[in-house]
Design a protein that fits this description.
Elements lengths: L16 H34 L2 E12 L2 E10 L5 E8 L5 E9 L5 E9 L6 E9 L1
Antiparallel strand pairs: 1-2, 2-5, 3-4, 3-6
Amino acid sequence: MAQAHTEAPAGRYGRSADERADHKLKIIGAVLGGLAVIGLGYYGFHTVAAQSVSGQVVSYQQVTPSEMHIHLEVNKGKSTTGSCTVRALDTDHNEVGRKTVRYEQHKTQIDQIITLRTTAHSTAAELVGCSDS
């Protein structure tokens, strides 16, 4: 005669130790993942905020063979002073003009047309960089 098997049906008397461990690991993983996202967001925000003066060249135009107009847009803190440097390049990408402009206005956004004298005909303009001071 065969003996009856006395194992309890799965799920009837609670979760097994493995299921409880898996659940705890999922919770720990979710918490650590959330902390990582918060940490990366904090780092990214303070990295961007640390650069309190930024700019971009909106457009440029060669006015004469020795003069270029550069439309520069600058973003900064209202009470921050700083400067931006632009340069003009010829067809071979050689620098033919450079100028640093200071910004002390109590504005957060400044649009300015910069007149840049060049030593030769220029075909492009670029922002070298901005800094606070």
